Amino acid sequence: MTLHSLDTRLPRLAASDITIGYDRRVISRDLSVDIPDGSFTVIVGPNACGKSTLLRALSKLITPSAGQVVLDGRSISSYKAREVARVLGLLPQTSLAPDGITVADLVARGRHPHQEFMRQWSRDDEAAVVAAMAATGVTELSGRHVDELSGGQRQRVWVAMVLAQQTPLMLLDEPTTFLDIAHQIELMELFTDLNELGTTLVAVLHDLNQAARYATHLIAMKDGSVVAQGAPSEIVTASLVEEVFGLRCIVVPDPVTGMPSVVPMGRERVRR
């Protein structure tokens, strides 16, 4: 079976009864997750609940001690790293750029999975890099050194590198980190556009309202387990938010999209 010989009854990416963690510490045990094809899936939950660990397992950064992650009908462990990188792009939570590298050169690294001994840099590669920088608003930074940029600028450059990879699956670990609210929304709109064009996205987000607004499929985790999953309109309730986050709230329709919007109750105060 080749990488693209798909069983249409199965999702392209799934975790089946995986046990994952670090060293001898288990984060999740017997965890199963299907990523719906063509979805914008967002994983939410409190800190240290296993969101990023699950994403790392889905991307082959860590290997489950039991169970398996399945990509296109085969265990992801059976693929070479370059094969995975042609299908699955990853934006990790923290990334380090080589000293002295420029924005354009870093974004161009997203094309490395497509390079081979007999296929070097092409017009298609150049076009992919230009388009990725334009989409993330970093074109004017192309000649700057990455280590000279602000945290928000660097984050957009890393996103551009993943976009330049041009994979049908993208995994994003806290992609809005360091960004102001305007750039957060701009980036979420970009991800929505990519999803509408056919890219399957999986993102870890801390902002529950952004998750509910933009996700087509939501996975809520707590203590290494999936508490609920499904369309945000079906699963985001006040009881779920309290169960997962320990937060009393009310859930009202987003006045712009009509999707669920979480309003924390907080403590009662006397207003003067």
UniProtKB/TrEMBL annotation:
Single Gene Ontology MF annotation: ATP binding
Domain called ABC transporter: residue spans: 13-248
CDD domains recorded: ABC_Iron-Siderophores_B12_Hemin
A Pfam family it matches: ABC_tran
Domain of life: Bacteria
Keywords: ATP-binding, Cell membrane, Ion transport, Iron, Iron transport, Membrane, Nucleotide-binding, Transport
Listed PANTHER family: IRON(3+)-HYDROXAMATE IMPORT ATP-BINDING PROTEIN FHUC
Protein name, UniProt field: Iron-dicitrate transporter ATP-binding subunit
Organism expressing this protein natively: Agreia bicolorata
